[in-house]
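Weekly sync, protein design subgroup
Attendees: M.S., D.O., the rotation student, P.L. (late)

Item 1: inverse folding check
M.S. brought a backbone from last month's batch and wanted to see whether the design step gives back something sensible before we order anything. D.O. pointed out we never logged the input encoding, so this time it goes straight into the notes. Structure tokens as presented (288 positions):
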């Protein structure tokens, strides 16, 4: 019996409707707002003009924040990749029966509020925090180190937030690699390092690229770590949007900045899809 063509669409209708109402329509509103005018009285005037975009690029202050966002995002991706691949590879090669418990520990931070996790760094890195208190107690330093409100503190906050995403993406990709391939490589004379370089690493690249893309996008759009842990010169583009929309209620300019950020991320995702393929992300989540 031939299946009716409308049945798949009927099953997809709830999810498509949710995406349309909760994502597509709000983004369309933001795009429309980005062309409006901000009156001197504070009112938003419906219009179609590019003054908000010209204002963004007229002064290097705003593009400078965008460039800082890209740089911090790339730094976060690099650090998460280095710090995340090692434990993911350990889980892949480990034969312990406690592997499930170890993976649960990786996901444990997701059970705690992101705000609480970010604020906890103040008690660790602050002048009277755990780190400075320990160093002063054992006599290594005589006065507290300035560990907070700088880019290093922002990177720490971003890494503790995003590292589990990288570990899980890489681990799932590694778990899909047949370990018999490594045994075959070693039987042909490869050392442990050569087997990793020639077999494991290339086959794990879909998970690596998916983790890098996810970490970059999430870093570019986050504002809590820079707001809580960063200083006056450590704002990222999401902080600028927050200040414009919430602080000054300048919805047209804030919307224009949001569209610029969205356009940048779309270009990055398009480039990724052009050379690697979005399908690689889904392949990295396939099991054995």
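Designed sequence read out in the meeting:
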């Amino acid at each position: 019996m031939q299946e009716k063509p409308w049945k798949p669409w009927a099953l997809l209708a709830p999810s498509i409707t949710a995406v349309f109402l909760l994502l597509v329509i709000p983004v369309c509103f933001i795009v429309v707002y980005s062309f409006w005018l901000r009156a001197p009285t504070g009112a938003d005037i419906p219009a179609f003009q590019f003054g908000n975009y010209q204002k963004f690029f007229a002064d290097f202050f705003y593009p400078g924040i965008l460039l800082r966002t890209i740089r911090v995002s790339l730094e976060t991706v690099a650090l998460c990749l280095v710090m995340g691949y090692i434990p993911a590879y350990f889980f892949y090669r480990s034969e312990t029966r406690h592997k499930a418990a170890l993976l649960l520990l990786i996901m444990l931070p997701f059970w705690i509020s992101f705000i609480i996790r970010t604020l906890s760094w103040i008690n660790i890195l602050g002048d009277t925090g755990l780190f400075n208190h320990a160093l002063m107690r054992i006599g290594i330093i005589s006065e507290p180190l300035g560990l907070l409100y700088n880019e290093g503190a922002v990177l720490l906050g971003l890494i503790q937030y995003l590292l589990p995403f990288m570990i899980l993406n890489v681990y799932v990709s590694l778990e899909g690699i047949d370990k018999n391939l490594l045994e075959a490589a070693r039987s042909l004379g490869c050392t442990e390092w050569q087997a990793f370089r020639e077999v494991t690493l290339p086959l794990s690249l879909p998970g690596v690229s998916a983790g890098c893309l996810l970490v970059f996008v999430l870093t570019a759009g986050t504002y809590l770590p820079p707001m809580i842990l960063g200083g006056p010169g450590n704002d990222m583009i999401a902080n600028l949007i927050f200040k414009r929309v919430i602080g000054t209620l300048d919805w047209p300019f804030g919307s224009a900045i949001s569209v610029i950020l969205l356009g940048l991320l779309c270009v990055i995702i398009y480039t990724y899809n052009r050379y690697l393929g979005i399908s690689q992300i889904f392949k990295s989540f396939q099991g054995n």
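Discussion: The radius of gyration is 23 Å. The CA atoms of residues 209 and 276 lie 8 Å apart.
Action: P.L. to compare against the previous round before Friday.
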